[in-house]
Amino acid sequence: MNIDVKIKTDDLNFKMRVSGIIIQNNKILVTDMDDSGFLCLPGGYVELGETTEEAVLRELKEEICIDFKIKKYLGVAENYFINKFSKKIHEISFYYLVKPCKKINSDDFTLFENDKGGIIKHDFKWIDISSMDKYDIRPVFIKEILQKKNNVFNHIIINKSN
């Protein structure tokens, strides 16, 4: 079994993630994982020895069950926040604009992912990019980025943990 890049301590958790931005008909694909109550981009942890490009393609295949191609690297974000369990999190996330190798159903859909023995429920939803402000999408900065024409953001630091 491959090991995810994450560190857990009593005071702080660190994780290295990737996210795929999938746009179809001016809508973005987001997911509510395990009925979390908010939406996020599909993706997951980078594994030790794996590039972020390999990780995003693997994670999307695991979650959506189809292959993707990377169109463009968009940027990296350092995100500091407190999760729903009141735990401080330091997350480094790499974002890629990706294209499915075959068309994805344009209706909302649910899939279950076997993630190293744990089952994760993904409720996928297509949201019009122009109406993203109506939804609780995390990280929040992604709404503004996606409404820009070029989507590139290089390196962002968000600190909501203080």
Structural notes for this entry:
This protein is mainly beta. It has one domain (6-159): Nucleoside Triphosphate Pyrophosphohydrolase, CATH 3.90.79.10. The chain is 12% helix and 51% strand. It contains 2 helices and 11 strands, in the order βββββαβββββαβ. The protein has helices spanning 52-64, 141-147; strands spanning 6-8, 12-24, 27-33, 39-40, 43-45, 68-82, 88-100, 109-115, 118-128, 137-138, 154-159. Strand 2 (12-24) and strand 3 form a beta hairpin. The longest helix is centred in the middle third of the chain and has 13 residues, at 52-64. The protein is globular. The termini are far apart.
At a glance:
This protein has 162 residues and is mainly beta.
Q: Key terms for this structure?
A:
51% strand, 11 strands, Nucleoside Triphosphate Pyrophosphohydrolase, two-stranded parallel sheet
Which CATH architecture would you pick?
Answer: Alpha-Beta Complex
Main β sheet profile: 9 strands, mixed
What is the H level of CATH, i.e. the homologous superfamily? Nucleoside Triphosphate Pyrophosphohydrolase
Overall pLDDT metric: 89
* Tally of DSSP helical segments: 2
Q: What order do the SSEs take from the amino end to the carboxyl end, as H and E? A: EEEEEHEEEEEHE
What is the percentage of strand-forming residues?
over 45%
Termini distance?
35 Å
| CATH class bucket | Alpha Beta
